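Memo to structure team: turn this sequence into structure tokens by end of day. - J.P.
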Amino acid sequence: MQNKKDFGFGTQIRKSPYFDATVRWGATNFSVYNHMYIPRDFGNPEKNFQNLINDAILCDVAVERQVEITGPDAYKFVQLLTPRDLTKLAIGQCKYVLITNNEGGILNDPVLLRLDENHFWLSLGDSDILLWAQGVAINSSLNVKISEPDVSPLQLQGPKSGKIMQKLFGDSIINLKYYWLREIELDGIPLVVSRTGWSSELGYEIFLRDGSKGDLLWEKIMTAGKDLGLKPGHTSSIRRIEGAMLSYHADADINTNPYEVGLDRLVSLETDVNFVGKEALKKIKQNGIKRKQIGLALDCEPLKGPNTTFWKISKNNEYIGKVTSAVYSPRLKKNIALAMVSIEECVIGNIFNVKISNSNIKATVVEKPFYDPKKKITTAKI
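Reply from structure team:
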């Protein structure tokens, strides 16, 4: 069992309601995300990946803070924040959205949850969208309240996650569709459950609405999953890169626009929908982009872990881009990577040079996602 004294935590960074539970269950390393500690290691990352794709893992992702938007004009305001057309967003539905600034740069790519007519959560990646939203609201003339509620999500992910959910919530949970949510209680613990997750596997997010019950909720879920092989875990870099899922600050940032990462479908320019950055995105689309995200296969010995710096990519000794996320996939038996390169080089089969430390590595442009491109796993019936 890990001794908490070994970590040297301070008070300026918040702990999640599941912090003590994750330490008890073997968390060996933490990092900071959204001004909170997040467990990053429960042992071998490859074992964590195998647990995820074969059985199920429970991840403390309380760092996915919620920006709650309520008030008479909440819907209008949420639409102002995102270029995705929300006119068909139903109560009880979730959507993957982008938040863009006035220049069309991506500020974050959260999941939007609609709990009621004018009640929304933005479930954030690492960013300060709470402050951005409050700033946009000041000059919007819209009647909204923007706050961070006492809400802390867990991710239950993997092929056996549906069976564990059945044990916890009964057979009716089977009817919860992909990217939909349900308000529910578990033995008096108030929750929102959604069929979402950052894993590219079948999975659920369980949003705790009372932080004092974090330890209790963690133990209830682990107990329910004991006979189904449930293990404590952390978000898997291997699986998310296989699925070509973006990691904000790595694969996209404020200087990245939606077209560069292939998310044109999340930008609505042909409707009357108004949003921050619309005019800039019109110009970007009209003028065309100069770079784009691609998939790469790296021809080298298995990487020891994900990259911690951006690796330079060159062709004919000229710099053409950078590797943003890279990892060895034990399932595919090769090194895979997401990269941002000059638009004229985004051709399947192109061969580049990648500089890793003092080594020059051959890289080939390949299709992405690298595994399950049709999302048959995440959308499968339980």
